[in-house]
Fold this protein.
Amino acid sequence: MPQADGLESLRRRIEGLDDRIVDLLAERFALLHEVAAYKHPRGIPVVIPERIDAVIERAAARGQRHGLDPGMLRDIYRRLVDEACRTEARAMDELPRGLTPAAATHD
């Protein structure tokens, strides 16, 4: 069946893209430990609403330039950012408590 082979080929390409998306998400979430380590001693909060809004709107605008629905991207990024904030908060909780914002000024 040539049509089935064509569909399987398309499915394999989609799966390859899905694998790349998951790899990029893993890389993005791994960076959150570095973000937490930077923010923690400086007293920077995990949740900065203006930053969250900027990240979501940047993704929506970029997607729209590619012909994607900005509402869909806002939904996806809202979920992504919510989980990122939880992950970052957990990472901060794992950091030593002895560090203070004043100690961070001596970088």
